[in-house]
Amino acid sequence: MTANAVTDSLINALGLAGVIALMIAVRRRDALGAMRWRWTLALGLLAAMYASRGLFWLGAGSGFNTLTAVAAAGIPLAVLFVVEGLIRRHAPLAVKLLVLGGTIAALAAALADIRWVTPVLGAHIGIGMTIAVAIALAGLRGLDRAEVRAVIALALCQIVLVPAALTDFRELLPDTPARMSPLAVMLLGWVGLTIGAWRVGERIGWLAFLVAIAALAGAGLASAGASLSAVQIGLVVLAALLLVTIGADAVAVQDAGLKLRRALASAPAGDRDALLQTITASETLGNGAILSHDHLEGVDIAAATALAAAYPVLRRRDAPWGLAADDIRAEAIAAIFETHNATHLLTLRETPLAWLAINLPGLSANVSAETDLALAQRLLAAATGRNGS
Asked: What is the pLDDT of residue 203?
């Protein structure tokens, strides 16, 4: 095997392992969340692409090469679905049709095995990924600060992913040292996995450390007479280090929920203001707003109080909360969620009714976070009753 083939095979195998680790992490952390199927679709297509490509390189048959192209054709549309989930709104219909049209054209080219399938796939992936980045950055309005940070971080990773994905087409870029999309995918997945667990400076510092280790390893092994170049060795080492990092974070990540629970445990007992400050200072919950009777004009207070009693933590996604979809009471509650850009309403007290409006970012919405909110609601309700306000 040539040096390029060895490098590509190693990075491809490490990338496949990284994608599988990310899929396991998504399943563990977002078991019931709205983002799970979006991430699973995108990561599943990547896993299929890397697995079939690796088998084709091992001589398993041309059918796996076709499967690689088919999986690659669906990736831009899957990434667009992920972006829609992150910004919590649909992309314009014209954009969806454009990406869908490109997907159909790329699939047809892949299945027909025509000569120009590589340029078609390259153009489709490049344009589709660029569109996804543009939609993500254009959809920041209406998101809270934690969501904005998450979307911007992932959009920047997608910008890196576009040229990295094009290096997978050696017919278009024959002089690249390696097919580098697995590296960019693992970087994007790691950033998404650790949202709320790493500060930006910590993440950049760790990534710089990994790059430095990879560069030193590449230079050292190349000078020792290895058949691969220093750059190729460095890229393989970096892929291995990213895989180890993803695996470690997937197994045991100290997420923001653990920090919140520790902060709640250390807050003064019965001090509502201290509890509110702890909750709203959380990296994942953003700003919270107390909604008292004055903020509930136009709402049937009796019906709202009954909902608060039945659902101490009222979730936006559970609408219409046992009411008819066109019930004016359900529409009024939905308007409260919309007005305050909230995903959850935590009942502080039932008489007179008071809620704490919370926005839980989509990337942080998981069973653990829901449990944290239920715990916070009970503590706040107890403190509010004790304070009598």
From this structure: 65
